[in-house]
Batch of 2 targets.
Target 1
Amino acid sequence: MRRCARRARPRSSFLLPSPPCCLACRCVLGAAPAAMLLPCVRSGAARRLARDLPRACSRSAQGPSLRGYSRDTAGKGLVLGVYSSEKGDGAAQFTSAGDAFDRLVSGKLRALLSLCGPPLKKGKTHIFHGLHQDFPSVVVVGLGKKNAGINEQENWNEGKENIRTAVAVGCRQIQDLEIPCVEVDPCGDAQAAAEGAVLGLHEYNELKQKKKPVVTPQLHGSAESQAWQKGVTYAEGQNLARYLMEAPANYITPIRFAEHIEQKLRTFSNVKVHIRPESWITTQEMGAFLSVAKGSAELPIFLEIHYLGSANKDDSPLVFVGKGVTFDSGGISLKPSSGMDAMRADMGGAATVCSAIVTAAALNLPLNIIGLAPLCENMPSGKANKPGDVVRAKNGKTIQVDNTDAEGRLLLADALCYAHNFNARAIVNAATLTGAMDVALGSAATGVFTNSSWLWTHLYEASILTGDRVWRMPLFEHYTKQVTDCPLADVSNIGKYSRAGGACTAAAFLKEFVTASHWAHLDIAGVMSNKDEVPYLRKGMAGRPTRTLVEFAARLSQDTHSAK
Ligand code: BES
Ligand code: ZN
Ligand code: ZN
């Protein structure tokens, strides 16, 4: 098929006298004006053209640019959203930014779109090159229905999800063209647009010599700069969790994890970070945590973060607890080798809660938060736990370790006991705890086991906004009986009917170490990684549900009613 981009053209200028045509997308550009119009091209020639243009990119995702398309925006990409036609007449329904741009180019964008075939479906794109000198490449992307809002069946805000997806797809197209800066249409919700841009462009390529070009997203226009910045901060929080989860286990060891988080929090005067060593953990009589850690040559760390965001530093804090197994081999109950590498992300609970606190600090949320992360490896060795061993948790309860691969609950048992020292408003733990959670819900939602409907409502409402959903799971006595019926100790670390209701028996086990009346356990094993289910996240570790935790904390900071 003949493609317009393959035509010879001068390299020095992007304003060409005669318009080419594009058979690939059925555009006939005879009607095109002075500016060269190159729709639907992803060729090397277009990339070179984009590269050769002048650069004026500040490399900051923060500041909005000025309206008016001045020369100092030259060389940027532009992503514009378009709604699906309401009348069914196929006419493009632009966002206000799209309308303004179309007016600026004398209606050429609308004309070109109408030549490109049927209306753009949700998340599908057309690219136009040379429409305006300040934006050599413009990606138009389908947003779906204009009036999309909360979808009661899906338990999320579909309009926001559509924006995140569309913007992520558009920004990646600009990245493929190797254009270092992209302005993004806020699409009526600048926070969602920023999240789509920053999440959609993120990739872990720290250890590769050949990296994808860095693209800096900026808000197109200046009307919603606060919401845009909020979205950038939320998404950067999730990207921090993705980074920590994706990194190899020989890079992110317990101490390196703690140092990374400490470094992120260094600039905040209202945050104190304690990196507790093994001797401290021993003093605390955290026998369950230590029994897992002793199988590895890497020393355990108990990371403790205090964020004092409330006007009163004595206000009861929200306490976050995260499972921090930096590598889970299974221990003596060794896991199969295929896919074991994914267990470098078994610190996803610690990564998401710590990243949520970093984000809360960046947003200056007015509440106190304490973060607790027991960090260690689960390895087989001569010192490792053996099936049938009995260990003693901080609250004195004895635990029979019937399966050394059910190690997360051992760390959490001690960390949850410790969490009760702080007169918490609520204790929320996150853990990649069970394969059974993945079997139950897959990657659709985090499973929430909670003894508090007040807590559940806040988590649920937060997740509708973020699109990183939660689903309530049972904490029945039925499951408790299956872990407390134990031959040698007070409680067994696996249910007596082995695999049945595995996520629920794990939650019932944790409940044995909780006396607080507002506690939630989030099993995030199913949402740990992304293949292609969440379109605005690339394949890899997902960092979910960091944004939901942040939104939840933000809501809690506004909830002045007592939680009864
Ligand atoms: N870290 C795993 C759970 C997991 C599996 C997380 C897959 C993410 C993806 C956990 O430590 C584990 O191995 N759990 C066991 C428990 C079982 C032995 C009762 C499991 O789920 O198989
Ligand atoms: Zn395990
Ligand atoms: Zn694990």
Target 2
Amino acid sequence: MKIGVIKEIEFGERRVALIPDVASRLVKSGLEILIESHAGESSFFANSAYAEVGANIIDDKTALINESDILLKVGAPREEEVSMFKSGQIIIGFLNPLGRPELIRRLAHQGVTAMGMEMIPRSSRAQSMDALSSQASIAGYKAVLIAAAALPKYLPMLTTAAGTIPPAKVVVLGAGVAGLQAIATARRLGAQVEAYDIRPAVREEVQSLGAKFIDVTLEEDTTAAGGYAKEISEAAKQHAQTVLAKHIKDADIVITTAQVPGRKAPVMVTDSMIAQMKRGSIIVDMAGEQGGNCEGTIAGKDVICHGATIIAPINLPASMPIHASQKYAKNLLNLLNHLIKKGELHLDFTDDIISSTCITHAGEILNQRVKDALSQLAVSA
Ligand code: NAD
């Protein structure tokens, strides 16, 4: 069986789907690995490193795609790449199925079996394949470094001959995978950290990292299937904002990570809250690409608002391409080991990992939420 890796061509994408160490393991298990020439360049993995472990370096992308049984990618393919895919081929990557349902329809028409890494179930059994988590953890870490670098202050408490400096106050909104890593990173840098999540179940995790959990008691169920957050009512939003406003006012750094899958991110930090913040404060809005958790956020831009700066980085994992690619490639290796037994592909649709991850197969769209998103598009067209 041949596994192909094409070079990512989206602007700013520096990750690669396979790193040489993982390619080596796949070669040892009897698979043939084809790497598009310079696919690993932006993540500092040279052609020679892949060649040394027995991968074949291919210059011609069309030939590589043609020969591969399974294609591995990081991000969704471009239109011109999709037209090169052949029927029966498997493509695995972050395909953004709910954000780009038309792409999924295209892949189905092309006869491709598309597997979305964002659809891997968030279960213990699938944990080693959970690329959303492996990448979110990197993003949470990097968000704090960005905030610390932009803050015109120290983060830790310092006792010096020139006086004592109190620790910076960091508020993290949303304590999922990214938020928890942001809390841990801010604590390692010596900041005083408070965090809030709509799901009260995360309180203990927040506290175990040495942060204070901000108590906003909501009188409604806030947890949806799979442990994800639900959209909350207007009244509950108002109440949460009143409580949070007091904490945000005192913060030097606010990191926002709140998302609701398939929907626009909830606005948690309003313009009037920002107006109350200290001048020079920093907000890193990690939900910028989903519309932002903060009023005034512009994805990919730094916006100065009432003397505070809102930073909304795009694709943070790509800014640490070595470890992001390493973790992603490991997630893919574990998925491939699940799919391929003794060199043969086993697409067992009774297995929940495979049935959740597979979005298209044999010309059909399998995922109901993608079908709903397409019907919605047809209605609004
Ligand atoms: P996410 O990126 O979807 O959202 C980030 C956080 O924002 C979440 O904790 C969410 O509750 C919170 N949030 C959403 N709306 C909010 C609002 N209005 N106010 C405050 N907070 C809000 O989350 P994620 O990190 O992908 O995690 C999603 C779920 O998956 C969690 O339950 C997590 O524990 C679970 N998970 C399970 C596993 C596993 O079992 N292997 C692995 C990773 C994540």
